[in-house]
Amino acid sequence: MSEFIISQMHIEAARNSTDDFNLFHDKNRWHHIQSNPFEGPIALGFQLGCFVEDQVNRSSKNYRHYLESAGSMLGHLEPFNFSQYELNFAGSVKPGDNIELVVRDGRYSEVSGIQCFTNRIALKANRKTVLLGYKRYSSEHLIKGVVPLPKLSEVINGKDRSFIGVHRYFLKRKYMIVGNAKNFLASAFAEQSEYIDEFVDKVSFPEMYPLSLVSSALLERAKAEGHNLVEKPMIYVSHKLSIDRGLLTKLKSNDVLNILVSPRHSTNDQNSDNVTQFCCCVLSNQQVLFHAEIQLAPLSALINR
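Above: the chain sequence. Below: its structure as tokens.
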């Protein structure tokens, strides 16, 4: 059994570093949510995603070790400069829970004609599976996010917290902050100095840090539309995330992230109340850092199962 025991301080560090004001994580106001079945605050979805990222990085089954063992045999492959996460939520993590990640052997394959290396993962809390999915490295984005993109100049010059374009994408402007990234790493039991160490002038942002800022953008869009987060809360069903690792390595503190969030789209299942929101992040140089596809469900759907 691992020694990774989630505390409320871990949750606080994740909330504060990502500006996630969802009451599900608030130790003082979680009970304001009507019929809250969790009976206390729970860990953030992206916080668990950061734990997945770091634990896969530490695993001997990851892409880096695969490259080292394969050597010149992989010389014909395109470089895998993109990271993909496909995470399905099956439960929650609470303060006091002991969490661990199971990483399956990785394999080279193709997904939708795109070359990738895949590890299947399972996150467990007190030996019970709470998250299932995949971590992939690929030669291009597998997730397309916001399509079509509005004019990039409109994104760059748009006002924070505004609706832009004919598709009424919500624009949330965030910034890469080294201190926030370090706290976010700490919330997921990562060794901060392996990513960020000012003493040796090292700044390597974790992939999940900019991705995690989607959470506040989703909440801000809901709030701007008048959605009642207390009476009609939503919970994560799945995350599909794709980030350009090459662009990420070039980011510095205070670099601007222009995050776009689509309106809610109903799923194809007529018997489901689930909705999907598509997101992307455009940098000041008009390049796209990441795409995201976030599926949510009303809390009432979980309660009434």
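The radius of gyration is 19 Å.
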